[in-house]
Amino acid sequence: MDFTGKRVVVTGAGKGIGRATALMLAKRGATVVALTRSQADLDTLKAEAGCEGIAVDLADAEATREAARRALPADLLVNCAGTTELQSFLDVTVEAFDLLHAVNTRAPMIVAQEYARETLGRGAKGAIVNVSSVAAFVGIPDHAAYCASKAGLDGLTRVMAKELAPKGIRVNGVHPTVTLTPMAVKAWSDPVKAAGMMGRIPVGRFADPDDVAEVILFLLSDEAAMVNGLSMPIDGGYMIA
Ligand code: NDP
Q1: Whose CA is closest to atom 11 on ligand 1?
Q2: Are 92 and 40 in contact (CB under 8 A)?
Q3: CA of 209 to the centre of ligand 1 (A)
Q4: Fewest beta carbons within 10 Å, which of 12, 66, 111, 188?
Q5: How far apart are CA 82 and CA 101, in angstroms?
Q6: Which residues does the chain have with pLDDT short of 50?
Q7: Following CA atoms 81, 155, 218, 137 in sequence, which dihedral angle do they give, to the nearest 10 degrees?
Q8: Could you tell me which CATH number the domain at 7-229 has?
Q9: Is the CB–ligand 1 distance for residue 126 below 6 Å?
Q10: What is the ipTM of this complex?
Q11: ∠223-228-231 over CA atoms, to 5°?
Q12: Best of 11, 17, 57 for a ligand 1 pocket test (most atoms within 8 Å of beta carbon)
């Protein structure tokens, strides 16, 4: 897949899956515009791969809209930024619930709205990939707010796919299992919990960020021209186990 001449906005490109996606896109010819929180990550992305960057807190709706507008025009969009808090259902706080929905669900909506308006406004076509999680499909203990925020994102993906594809923008979701990133360290460092999860993955390992990035690039590419509204597990078979 060659992305030469394509300009791609990637949120959460500072670390983990977003960073792997940004670097892979840049290696395959794209100009990447990274929207992420830490300036230090933007600096290293620029040094490593020439990525453009905008520092923004995606929990802030107005700042998110403003950053998205600055990042445009773009050919393609990857909504990858996400965050989590480990709280059992009985302990979920309103603050954590609101934060996770702001970053994991509302920010992708805002960035995609701006991207779609601008793209359609100039008569262009495009594609969006929203990074969800297997947590949107199953209940994972201590992930109540996270599961809800990702299931909400999937609802958006389906509506976007129905409304935007007739106008020329395909929209798909990817649903990774545990992927070896800083977020996974936060959520899965308990070896007993990790072993239980790993035991349900038939391929016998957690995902690497590049495993996820490869699928994101496929869904962005013209090779996936007939793929729209997909919820694509990247889970080594976890969902059938
Ligand atoms: P990481 O925590 O490794 O990286 C997340 C990136 O998003 C960081 O660059 C982070 O910036 C940025 N980010 C987080 N919150 C904000 C914010 N409020 N404003 C701006 N940027 C922000 O996460 P992963 O790479 O693991 O996860 C990427 C996506 O994949 C997420 O949507 C996650 O839910 C999903 N996912 C991850 C899985 C996993 O096991 N890792 C499994 C399934 C799905 P900073 O560090 O500066 O805060």
Answers
A1: 37
A2: no
A3: 11
A4: 66
A5: 9
A6: none
A7: 90
A8: 3.40.50.720
A9: no
A10: 0.99
A11: 110
A12: 17
